Amino acid sequence: MMHCEEQDLRKKSKDELIDDYIELFDEHEKLKKELRKYKNPNTPPSAHSHLKPDATPAGKKHKRGAPAGHPGTNRQKQAADEQRLVTQTTCPNGHADVTVVGSRKQQIEEYPPDIKPKIIDVIRHKLQCAKCGVVFWAKDGRTPLQGRFGMNLIVMTLLLKFVVRGVLRKTAGFLEYGFGFKITPASVNAIVSRASNAVQTEYDALTQKIRTARIVYCDETSFSVLGMKFWVWVFRTDSDVLLVVRHSRGNDVPKEILRIDFGGIVVCDGWRAYDCLVNASIQRCWAHLLRKSFELSSVPGKHFHAKLKRLFNRVDRFNRKPRTEAERLRKYAQLTRGLQELMRHYARYPECEGVANYVGNRLGEWFTCVELEGVEPTNNFAEQAIRETVLVRKIIGAFRSMQGVKTYEVLASLIATWSFQKRDVGKELTRALSTGMC
Questions:
Q1: What is the three-class DSSP state of 286?
Q2: How far apart are CA 288 and CA 358, in angstroms?
Q3: Using N-to-C axis directions, what is the helix angle for 425-437 and 200-211, rounded to 10°?
Q4: What are the structural domain ranges in the chain?
Q5: Sign of the CA dihedral 267, 268, 269, 270?
Q6: pTM
């Protein structure tokens, strides 16, 4: 086969060989450009698991299972609401002469076979106060003042839409097939919009909590809105998640959300939009830096990556133990000097120059996590929080109205916050909606 290919090459003229080389080079560059969409410093490895090698250790033959101390998946038995006897009068071969020779107990959890919506006629009194003269409609905290949908139905619709990630049509279909409740996608959309308006006050309070937080982890990802490129921004603390959708990826968004005088700590990927927060302390993401240096393929580049990784490990080891303020300041100065020397040395190599400049442009922002206690060296918190939005983008493709944008940022923020706080999302939705709608 190889001999035939060599003969074919010998038959070609110089111009034909040049044309073949140009064609192969163009195809090679095209493939590199396509691969760069998936493997680049701004895309975490978890986003392209199909490019990962098999992680099964060589030589390990035993069955993979849960780690030691795992609680397991067996459910705890509860008090039964019903007893069911399972017996037969014939054997599998059809003989009727059977006797009981033993038994075993089993507990199952079940839903009723037919869960149907309940129709409730509501008579609401209009009242007047004899002392102040105010006229008002009676409230009971569980019956919405407007609309034909009850609180439980609204909460179920929101859970399907935001937790199960159901599109409008699928959400309507599930309510019909699972609960015998016929509803149009337009009505589902109306429920979501009304719920968003009802919890707006809680969303505003969440925004205020983010503004007064000590540490905020920030990230952004693109999202199509009415055919235009918008950006979903996430601002996350240890317990709260705020999502905003804006047409801009510029510094006007951090100014709007955090305010220009924000004096806390911002952990980000180094995007220049955060430079406007002049009073804030910035921690740049080491995960982004190490992904950049990992792409260096030359011998100096590999050495550069190894030394950066070693520096990151030193940061990790230092932060594992409680430290005094003086210890932190000394370590910050020491690590910053070491990084500066590393950057100067490897900036001499053409392939390493880009990464070295990336480090040197914000030299004082790589070890804020050492100088100040409780700061993460990576922006993984924000990337984890925005991952749900990336999945939603893959499912729906785009927002098709500005009202949809508003409902998403309000409800997705609150549901994500309650989830991170390990709270019951259904109960929290009921509480928040009852306050705003009932």
A1: helix
A2: 11
A3: 120
A4: 214-383
A5: negative
A6: 0.79
Q: Measured between alpha carbons, how far is 318 from 325 in angstroms, rounded to an integer?
A: 13
Taking alpha carbons only, the member of 320, 367, 378, 373 closest to residue 342 is: 367
List the chain pLDDT tens, one digit each, 438 residues: 445 555 666 666 766 667 676 777 777 777 766 666 656 665 665 555 555 555 555 555 556 666 666 666 677 888 888 898 989 989 999 898 889 999 998 888 888 877 888 889 999 999 899 998 899 899 888 889 888 899 999 999 999 999 999 899 999 999 988 888 899 999 999 999 999 999 999 999 999 999 999 999 999 999 999 999 999 999 999 999 999 999 999 999 999 999 999 999 999 988 889 999 999 999 999 999 999 999 998 999 999 999 999 999 999 999 999 999 999 999 999 999 999 999 899 999 999 999 999 988 888 899 999 999 999 999 999 999 999 999 999 999 899 999 999 999 999 999 999 999 999 999 999 999 999 888
Long-range interactions of 136-143: CB distance < 8 A, separation 24+:
139/438, 140/438, 141/434, 141/438, 142/434, 142/438, 143/438
Residues in the chain, total = 438
Q: Are strands 228-236 and 241-246 parallel, antiparallel or unpaired?
A: antiparallel
How far apart are the C-alpha atoms of 193 and 200, rounded to whole Å? 11
- Which tokens in the block code for residue 13? 């003229």
Helix%, strand%, coil% for the chain, nearest 5: 50, 10, 40
Alpha carbon distances (Å) from 425 to 29, 199, 414: 48, 14, 9
Kindly give, in sequence order, each residue whose CB lies less than 8 Å from that of residue 119, ignoring residues fewer than 6 positions away. Answer: none
* Cβ-contact 342, 314 below 8 angstroms: no
β-pairing verdict for 126-128 and 135-137: antiparallel
User: Which contiguous run of DSSP H or E holds residue 65?
Assistant: none
Which ranges in 244-324 belong to alpha helices (H)?
252-258, 286-294, 299-319
